[in-house]
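Run log, item B.
One chain of 98 residues. Sequence copied directly from the ordering sheet:
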Amino acid sequence: MAVDGNWNITMSTPMGERKATLSLKSAGGALTGTQGADGNSGDIFDGTVNGDDVAWKISITNPMPLTLAFTGKVSGDTMSGEMGIGPMGSFPFTGARA
């Protein structure tokens, strides 16, 4: 699938740009993998893929405990979309195949 592989993503947040790595694998409509930033890594969950549309969630503890909800679109070797941070709203993210 188009989304499978390793990605470098940049998230625009209220605290400035944050960078993360993403390793994704799709099977049917399910999306699994890991996301890491600042030396911490975790499994994504609730991942879905439908054509070029992708969505997943990741729980983080740094800088504070949060669940980030990503929705985006893959176009070749790039990805872009929105990252929802609960009551703090949504912020854009971009990604490039590593």
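Observations after the first pass:
- Residues 5-97 form a domain with the Lipocalin fold (CATH 2.40.128.120).
- The CA atoms of residues 59 and 67 lie 4 Å apart.
Flagged for discussion on Thursday.
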